[in-house]
Recover the amino acids of this structure.
């Protein structure tokens, strides 16, 4: 039950508050609000309990939806990402003996980049599909998902660079 | 029980995921009518497909009822059709309303013989529904016979396939009339007697009832002339006709009630012999 450490609780609360109070109001170029709360899926240790992750990802999306009055799109997208995270980990890091126990314990930069890319890309694709929810808006969905993903990735990269690699 | 619990425990993540997903989707709908509308659009599509299938099944099982309704409707329409065909052929009569003294009752055929020389039909209505002897019986496309005797719930009909029954007919073009008699072979082959050879008729002419009897009104189509021959020295045609529909293949018929039957009978009684 690694999650129930104080640092995890703090990171959960900090990510929700940061998203709701700060990042939802950035409006870069008028329409980009990067979603930094995806860092939760990076910090959550890879070998920890998957069931708890699903519940936590639901709660994470739920709180963000509740506090930013945004339908249910955050909840559904976050819940789905929480559910398929083992697949993303397996795809980006490979099923070997060297499968890392957490994101920061792996030294391979390319694998980390693929992991972040998949996580962010899928989440944003789900999120914007649910927000627009219409075939007519397919171009808008692609545009928003692409540019928001870029800024989310940049911000996540910057944030993660403050954390040193643990052995 | 243990196995069920084990299975549930093994698939706890997908189960939990889908449970929470449904929860969040319903949460989302409560927030946004737009999403609700979009999902309902697909819902309507599928439910309409489903209703289409179930409707087809239901329609199949309702066929009997629908048939009955159609027969009732036909009963009314038949009366209208007969009364319009009964318009006299002189032009100023079109402007005057003419009495049509016939009522139509629908019936289904219980028994129909067609292999003997004198054939009868049994109908499922009788004196209780107002059927009496000497009423004409027609089908959707032609005539069937004349009621012979009735009981409370059934009626016995002399079929047109009966060598003693003669029906008064004429052609649509020419007013010359004769009698339609069964030749006793195929159920659609008939002979027409007593048409004088000065009448202007030809092969292919449509035969209609002549309206000279109290059984049938004028103008019910019966058949077509198939063969025409002048008999030397007699002054009459020898005519063969083919019926429009096969009297051996009927299941629903209409009984025609002549409302003036008593009146006509009393007139005939007064004729001095």
């Amino acid at each position: 039950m690694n999650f129930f450490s104080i640092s995890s609780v703090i990171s959960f609360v900090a990510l929700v508050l940061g998203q709701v109070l700060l990042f939802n109001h950035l409006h870069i170029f008028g329409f980009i609000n990067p979603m930094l709360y995806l860092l939760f899926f990076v910090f959550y240790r890879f070998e920890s309990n998957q069931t708890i992750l699903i519940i936590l990802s639901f709660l994470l999306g739920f709180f963000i939806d509740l506090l930013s009055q945004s339908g249910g799109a955050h909840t559904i997208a976050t819940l789905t990402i929480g559910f398929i995270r083992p697949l993303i980990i397996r795809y980006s890091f490979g099923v070997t003996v060297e499968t890392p126990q957490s994101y920061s314990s792996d030294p391979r930069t390319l694998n980390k980049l693929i992991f972040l890319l998949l996580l962010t890309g899928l989440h944003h694709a789900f999120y914007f599909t649910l927000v627009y929810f219409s075939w007519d808006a397919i171009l808008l969905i692609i545009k928003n998902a692409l540019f928001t993903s870029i800024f989310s990735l940049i911000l996540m990269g910057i944030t993660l660079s403050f954390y040193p690699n643990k052995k | 029980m243990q196995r069920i619990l084990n299975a549930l425990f093994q698939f706890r993540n997908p189960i939990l995921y889908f449970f929470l997903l449904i929860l969040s989707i319903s949460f989302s709908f409560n927030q946004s009518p737009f999403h609700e509308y979009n999902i309902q659009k697909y819902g309507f599509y599928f439910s309409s497909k489903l209703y289409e299938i179930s409707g087809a099944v239901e329609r199949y099982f309702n066929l009997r009822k629908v048939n009955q309704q159609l027969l009732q409707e036909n009963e009314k329409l038949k009366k209208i059709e007969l009364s319009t065909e009964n318009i006299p052929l002189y032009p100023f009569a079109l402007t005057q309303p003419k009495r049509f003294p016939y009522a139509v009752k629908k019936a289904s055929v219980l028994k129909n013989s067609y292999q003997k020389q004198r054939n009868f039909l049994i109908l499922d209505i009788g004196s209780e529904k107002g059927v009496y002897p000497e009423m004409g019986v027609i089908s959707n496309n032609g005539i069937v016979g004349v009621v012979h005797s009735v009981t409370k719930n059934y009626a016995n009909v002399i079929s047109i396939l009966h060598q003693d029954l003669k029906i008064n007919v004429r052609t649509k073009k020419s007013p010359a009339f004769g009698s339609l008699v069964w030749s006793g072979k195929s159920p659609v082959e008939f002979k027409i007697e007593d048409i004088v050879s000065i009448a202007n008729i030809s092969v292919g002419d449509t035969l209609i009832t002549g309206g000279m009897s109290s059984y049938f009104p004028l103008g019910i189509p019966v058949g077509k002339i198939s063969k025409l021959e002048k008999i030397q020295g007699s002054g009459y045609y020898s005519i063969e006709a083919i019926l429009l529909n096969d009297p051996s293949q009927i299941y629903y018929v209409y009984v025609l009630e002549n409302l003036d039957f008593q009146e006509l009978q009393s007139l005939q009684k007064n004729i001095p012999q």
About this structure: The helical segments of chain A are 6-22, 39-43, 50-68, 73-93, 109-132, 138-161.
